[in-house]
């Protein structure tokens, strides 16, 4: 059984709220990562339906759990996670501090490929994955994934981004 890893950036808006809560996208659908793999919408569905807990690890090390993912779900954008760093664990405290300082900005998924096919660019289209863990990591592979503030909902984020885009367009039109 081969365990694979996909790295994702947390983004520039990485925050740890109340010292422990983090949330954001561990995987974004339809984007090719630096290894040429693209996760398709629905790829995690069967795995998540089994109800097995997805582990939160430090740098994919199974000997270093650093927290708990309280919520792991697919939405239209990708795989959204929300969890708590355990500050009673030394690595959990370290992770919270590194995220707050901006030194760690990556997420990575650990999974087993169940179904995949080749794409026309030599990469893989991943249509079914058995998700095992989501790790905080140093080097991301998919820069579009990010962690936001506590309680940040993906739908609210999308609305804010859309409002900002409209505001930008309004300003550009006002200049003409």
Task: Kindly describe this structure.
Strand 7 and strand 8 form a beta hairpin. This protein has three helices and nine strands. Helix content is 22%, strand content 41%. The chain has a single domain (4-150), classed as Alpha-Beta Barrel (Serine Protease, Human Cytomegalovirus Protease, Chain A), CATH 3.20.16.10. The N and C termini lie far apart (60 Å). Strands 1, 2, 3, 4, 5, 6, 7, 8 and 9 form a nine-stranded mixed sheet that branches. It has helices at 45-49, 90-101, 154-175, and strands at residues 4-9, 21-28, 37-39, 55-58, 61-74, 78-85, 106-118, 124-137, 147-148. The chain has 176 residues and is of the alpha+beta class. Residues 149-164 have low confidence and may be disordered. InterPro entries: Peptidase_S78_dom, Prohead_protease.
């Amino acid at each position: 059984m081969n365990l694979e890893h996909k790295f994702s950036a947390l983004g520039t808006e990485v925050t740890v709220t109340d010292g422990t809560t983090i949330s954001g996208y561990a995987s974004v659908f339809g984007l090719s990562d630096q290894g040429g793999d693209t996760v398709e919408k629905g790829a995690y569905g069967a795995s998540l339906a089994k109800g097995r807990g997805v582990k939160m690890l430090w740098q994919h090390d199974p000997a270093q759990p650093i927290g708990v993912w309280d919520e792991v779900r697919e939405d239209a954008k990708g795989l959204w996670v929300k969890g708590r760093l355990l500050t009673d664990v030394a690595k959990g405290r370290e992770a919270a501090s590194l995220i707050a300082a901006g030194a760690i900005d990556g997420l990575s998924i650990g999974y087993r490929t169940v179904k995949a096919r080749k794409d026309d660019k030599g990469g893989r289209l991943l249509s079914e994955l058995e998700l095992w863990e989501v790790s905080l990591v140093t080097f991301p592979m998919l820069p579009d994934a990010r962690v936001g503030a506590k309680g940040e909902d993906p739908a609210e984020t999308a609305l804010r981004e859309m409002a900002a885009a409209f505001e930008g367009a309004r300003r550009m039109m006002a200049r003409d």
